[in-house]
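Worked example

This section walks through a single chain of length 584. The input is the sequence exactly as stored; nothing has been trimmed or padded.
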Amino acid sequence: MSKIKVMSVTGNPDLLHFKNLQLTERKKTYEIQEMHESEYDHQVKLLKRNASLRIQIKKLQPLCNQEPFTMDDSFMSKTVKRPLLLIQNGTPTVHSNRRVKFTQTMISQAYESQLKFFNQRKNTYVQMMLSIDDQLYPVIIELFNEFTPKACDNFIKFCEGVNIEGQFYSYKKSKFTKYKPNGFIQGGQFDKKISIYGGYFEDESYALKHDCEGIIGFANDGFQHTNHSQFYITLAPMPFFDYKRVAFGKIIRGMKQILKVLKQEQHSDIVIYDCGRYDHQAQIRLKLEKFTDDFYSNLPENTQSFNKFIEAEQLKHNEASGDFTQLVKYLVEQMRIISKSVYSLTGLKKAIQQLNESFVKTQYCQILYILDNQQTLLADNQQSKYIVAFRAVDGTDSCRASAFIIFKKQTTIFKQVNLNDFKQQAEQITSMGYCVYGQTTQLVFGTGYNLSMFTLHNNEFKLQQQELQIPKKETFYSSNIKDDFLQNKIITNLPTKNYRYTDSIFTTLHRVVRLGGLAMYKEVTIFEAIICAFTLARSWGWSFCDGTTTFNQIKIRDIKQLTYLYIGQQKWIQKIENHFLSIV
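Given that input, the structure is written out below as tokens.
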């Protein structure tokens, strides 16, 4: 057994280094099992029928697009077409034209396999949403905190956001400052070199090697024990980084797509759009729950389509000119188009581009404010009296939605429309609607005191239910507020402990309306809050935002205004309101 050299380092005199360990001993003692996407993303092995008939499905692709199939992709099209390897009586046979239909059992088994795999790892995971030339690419990072606990903790804190010496630091919205093709990208730079430990912190371990792409480590100042906030991601094997820089993690999902994009051409704008801790157990269970299909119900016979429904509503108002009806039809049609590609990044980009092009020619609306990128579109026709705020895609995980809100222009037709026309009272809303995408895609549309729900069936929205009403029993709760005294007190008294969180506010809203529950969000846009408050007011629920539970008192003072939001049953929202009033 060779001796381990102990080097004296300030703050940690017993720090162990692995440089002098024999290669065989190091591999035997600190072996790190590599994990590739193929281990759980692209292989689903199922035993079907009996022991003599086995079907192995490898790297399937959905029919709706040509992107690589993963378990996070949409299952809107349940049938895939791909050459399959059929093993019968020990003889492999390729069936190129065989079609296999996804079943609930197959999907559940695949996710249960992922959950078992993650539980065996016992590591920490972080999720990042990288923006490359305004295109989003999600990645999941595994952190080996068994070998580098201080480095991993430092990385997690900066991903979540941390206050150091009275100043807030976060990787979110920061840029990668260095990009070397076939080398690495480097980000996490702030105005000064800082860590959660104050300044520099020491190298902990060189156990993880830079032997493949996707390795994450902390950059230093050219010599050991100078780690801070800056980190790098390797784009190829970098063996000359070994024993010089501390690697503490690896990208386990999404790296192949990042490499494919970066190899196409030079990219100067690589931004961390969003980041945070990834709870793999909660995410996988959420995906399993998604396929139980909470919102499915049989359509009534001879039900109306949405177009016929809105036309019938128009006939009830003799003064109606038809512009509002055509505008609502246009917005709902855009949601139907988005539903086809909402889980495909390339398809979604084309759908939004088509929205931009088609809106310019519309005759029924003057201005369209897109909340996703705060883009303002002006129509050629400036004689219309309506203005619209539109959320193309809400949510980044397996639950996504779209929404719109329609106002009337308050100034004369001769005055040029601008974003200040949105600064109105909530009671002046003409109409609103949101659409939740999934196996059952549903649209909720409200105008006046009416609130109706439609289900997408045969590529057309059909009337499912009128006069929605929130259930009186809470079946779940959802929150993105951390370490809040009021929240903890409310959750303790809730009759349910079923926690179901998604970053899509409208998916959560739909669950509250259909299933009954309580949702608490720290910061949402004022437009999202008004849509939620409008829906709850028409479905016998309550909401608390912008300092009031009264829908008509909510006012848009700034189009970028953020507010807290609580939605649910009256008794819980009133307790929250009383708590806020007691503080004031």
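What to look for: The first strand starts at residue 43 and ends at 47.
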